[in-house]
TrEMBL record:
This is ABC transporter, ATP-binding protein. SMART domains: AAA (SM00382). Gene3D superfamilies: P-loop containing nucleotide triphosphate hydrolases (3.40.50.300). GO terms for molecular function: ATP binding; ATP hydrolysis activity.
Amino acid sequence: MEPSPSPAASSPPLAIEVKGLVKRFEDVTAIAGTHFEVPVGQCVGLLGPNGAGKTTTVEILEGLQHPTSGEVRLLGLRWDKDEAELRERIGIALQETRFHDRLSVEETVRLFRSFYRKGLSVEEAIGLVKLEEKRNAQVVKLSGGQRQRLALAVALAADPEILFLDEPTTGLDPQSRRALWDVITGLKGKGRTVVLTTHYMEEAQVLCDQVIIMDHGRIVARGTPAQLIASIGGEQVIDFSTTPTLPAEAFAEVPTLVATHSRGDGYTLSVKELHRALPGLLSLVSARGAHLVHLSTRQATLDDVFLASTGRSLREDAQS
Ligand SMILES: Nc1ncnc2c1ncn2[C@@H]1O[C@H](COP(=O)(O)OP(=O)(O)OP(=O)(O)O)[C@@H](O)[C@H]1O
């Protein structure tokens, strides 16, 4: 009889393990005891409103802050014991990296590559982020999207096994954003683990195998984007407003209703079956003598998951 595989042999190797992580700043608890794991080769996204604890979590993972308590392992290693090795094996692209304006793209990548014993060639790093045409351009002459790609090339110079990207596409136009998405997807294809913070739910939905939604230092939801969206039970959403504004109870009888949330001057209804919910909603509105000001329907997103978990909208927080 064949021996049954040990758990270590059957489960995928872990790039990141976080157990009971707590971080306090005097009277503020930034992280209130979180647990999660990221298998090698996954892209994990940290989402949450301002102050949720994302940056603190990522900075602890990057070895830039010490936890108050709890355990963090990257590639089985610990910051307090294995810092030199970890620095060689992870890469960090900050949201706004300041480079020397007068250096060229190639000189900048060469400089950062020189800090590491092994890694990619300068040409490979530039090629991965598709900046070949700008190889000789000075940093000062790059567009915002090209600078973000340069930051990524620098983070990739040591060919890291785990790459941390802090809001990599904030402020970029849609074309540059998609170009960066392609680069990140390519890295996943090479078995690299990527940790991403973002305010863009579409980005998390497209790129992430695992999404961790944080609020007030806690993980309020975790799973694949599809699992999280399925978990709220209503995969279709109706956004609408009426005049006069009706109380939320007015919509309690909408067929297949899962949840009602007020948002701005209107409501968001999560429903299971749009074709039944919509006619029901329209007749409830007219029975109350009200009129629709606006109505739109869409597929549920990670924002609706956040709304269902916390009663607040990530979108509203992101825009504030
Ligand atoms: N150095 C610090 N001293 C005191 N409090 C801090 C410090 N750093 C973070 N905090 C607090 O810890 C909490 C979590 O902050 P953190 O920056 O991790 O949130 P975040 O989710 O990254 O927010 P954002 O999206 O705005 O970057 C907040 O209440 C913040 O004010």
